[in-house]
Backbone:
């Protein structure tokens, strides 16, 4: 039980770990990784109910998808472009005004590197857990990361959908978010019909309402 | 995918043939057995899915020369949007990985680009107007 307690203590650190993407945007009181996981699991459960999926797997996957960040860095797509001096708001604002663009080869290389770092973090985090649990968590994470099953592919998109929802909330309350870029991004990354319907609802709730 | 299927079958056969931990302990007490068993579950699930995909697969064929300037499945597309250039490949839903530049043909952008030529401008507004201009289309031989 001691090892299990150590795992709980380690995972608990995510309650206070603010997500880097929001810090980079200069948002105040931005959410922690644990807060993102919480609402994402709710989204996965509620929206997943509209599909024929193994819901136990979906919810477990949502709960563990980011726990590797106890030890792995929370990377953002802007990382290679950001200045070394983080106290250069003008330059950072300029970088954030455009979506970071890379060649296809660079994109693939970055995805692989991120995956390796996260897998190392996850291995370290679960190394002392009972074998059955350790294997289950690793398998769920791999399924999510690589989209090996319908559940993995759905939860991967739910992760981004929660991110989009949070981004729009920050845009509405604090600004600082390039909502046009996010809107464009959404049209490229989602293809699940349930999530596309959810995105349309977000458009109506946030963008069309603010236009009035 | 065929290679993945063969690889998974090989792992499964290896595991079930020679590497099964002995049942000296009960299943509850032997962590090695439990780990092995969980692994097999994942392998079986993935094997079933890959088998299903292979059964229904339709290989993306390289289009004839006169149609290689049209966006189709498998095309690598260089686009210009909001003054920025970006490159991605249009793939089927199962293969999609937008972070790695693989956009699903069932996403709004993927769907809208299909069937269009180099030089065409496609409006993907909803709700904000965004124009995607196709700069280059290539297919891997």
Residues:
């Amino acid at each position: 039980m001691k090892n299990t307690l150590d795992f709980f203590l380690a995972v608990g650190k995510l309650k206070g770990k603010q997500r880097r993407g929001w810090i980079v945007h200069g948002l105040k009181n931005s959410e922690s990784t644990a807060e993102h996981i919480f609402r994402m699991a709710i989204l996965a459960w509620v929206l997943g109910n509209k599909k024929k999926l193994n819901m136990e797997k979906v919810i477990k996957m949502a709960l563990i998808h980011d726990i590797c960040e106890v030890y792995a860095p929370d990377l953002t797509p802007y990382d290679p472009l950001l200045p070394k001096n983080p106290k250069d708001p003008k330059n950072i604002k300029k970088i954030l005004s455009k979506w970071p663009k890379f060649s296809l080869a660079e994109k693939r290389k970055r995805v692989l590197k991120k995956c390796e770092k996260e897998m190392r973090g996850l291995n370290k985090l679960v190394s002392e857990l009972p074998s059955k649990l350790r294997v289950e968590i690793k398998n769920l994470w791999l399924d999510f990361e690589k989209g090996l099953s319908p559940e993995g592919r759905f939860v991967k998109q739910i992760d981004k959908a929660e991110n989009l929802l949070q981004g729009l909330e920050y845009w509405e309350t604090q600004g600082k978010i390039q909502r046009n870029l996010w809107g464009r991004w959404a049209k490229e990354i989602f293809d699940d019909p349930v999530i596309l319907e959810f995105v349309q609802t977000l458009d109506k709730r946030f963008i069309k309402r603010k236009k009035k | 995918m065929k290679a993945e299927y063969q690889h998974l079958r090989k792992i499964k056969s290896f595991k079930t043939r020679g590497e099964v931990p002995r049942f000296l302990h009960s299943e509850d007490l032997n962590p090695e057995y439990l780990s092995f068993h969980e692994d097999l579950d994942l392998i079986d699930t993935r094997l079933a899915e890959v088998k299903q995909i292979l059964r229904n697969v339709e290989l993306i064929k390289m289009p004839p020369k006169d149609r290689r300037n049209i966006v189709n499945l498998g095309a690598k597309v260089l686009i210009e949007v909001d003054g920025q250039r970006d490159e991605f490949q249009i793939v089927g839903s199962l293969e999609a990985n937008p972070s790695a530049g693989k956009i699903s043909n069932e996403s709004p952008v993927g769907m809208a680009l299909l069937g269009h030529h180099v030089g065409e401008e496609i409006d993907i507004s909803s709700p904000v107007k965004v124009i995607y201009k196709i700069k280059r289309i290539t297919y891997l031989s």
Q: What stands out?
A: Chain B has two domains: 2-56, 65-138. The radius of gyration of chain B is 22 Å. The interface with chain A takes residues 31-32, 34-35, 38-39, 41-42, 45-46, 49, 76, 81-82, 84-89, 93-94, 96-101, 103-110, 124, 126-128, 130 of chain B (CB under 8 Å). The CA atoms of residues 3 and 20 of chain B lie 24 Å apart.
